[in-house]
Design a protein that fits this description.
The protein contains eleven helices and seven strands. α3 packs across α4.
């Protein structure tokens, strides 16, 4: 799935993009403004999708001077389903992160999980991913967690993420000591993590990179 555009999993067309934009506002929007807010698709394509949605009744259109303004029809019989779909798409990444965090709590237990940093990085963290993008996760473990526990956790995350999303998952696992070595050696991965890491469990990765000697 495309974690930067997850509604396409449920509504694989421009209609899904348009409904997601309109579900987030009650302000009437022009077709051009909707096209600006939609992440994919051309202006003519968006207008065609709007026409189909107006025909179905899920979007309302009214003329305002030279423009046509569009709003979601929240009285439509299917609107509760549409709204639930949009909300589910909006929380996909949070749900993924929580599932990975749950695996950390299961495998590392306390206080190991609390002291372990888990962060997304790469295209998913930057919200520039595509359907074929890998999901990249960095895990920084305390030095006292044994290698077998780390291996079991990494395997569980890789398998789980692929099952939950359909995407391949790369887990870059390092201990705190190894992280310090990478920083000292100016490893290229450090620059990548510093640029776009999105921490979702444990001590913030960017702060750790600044604090490590």
């Amino acid at each position: 799935m495309d974690l930067s555009d997850p509604i396409n999993v449920i509504i694989p067309s421009l209609e899904g993009q348009v409904l997601r934009v309109l579900a987030h506002t009650t302000t009437p929007l022009s077709g051009s403004r909707i096209a600006e807010l939609v992440t994919t698709g051309s202006n003519p394509g968006i207008r065609t999708a709007l026409g189909r949605l107006v025909h179905q009744g899920t979007v309302l259109a009214r003329r305002s001077g030279p423009s046509i303004l569009y709003t979601a029809n929240r009285d439509h019989l299917t609107w509760p389903t549409i709204e639930h779909t949009v909300q589910s798409a909006d929380t996909v990444l949070d749900t993924l992160q929580e599932r990975v965090a749950d695996l950390a709590r299961k495998h590392l237990r306390q206080p190991g999980a609390e002291r372990t940093t888990l962060a997304l990085f790469g295209s998913v963290a930057r919200a520039t991913s595509t359907l074929d993008s890998d999901i990249d996760i960095v895990a920084v473990f305390p030095d006292n967690i044994d290698a077998h526990t780390i291996e079991d956790f990494v395997d569980a995350v890789s398998e789980g993420v692929e099952r939950w999303t359909g995407n391949s998952c790369n887990v870059y696992d390092v201990t705190r000591a190894r992280l310090a070595q990478m920083i000292a050696a100016s490893d290229p991965m450090i620059a990548s993590w510093a640029a776009d890491a999105r921490t979702f469990l444990g001590p913030d990765l960017r702060r750790r990179l600044r604090a490590e000697p």
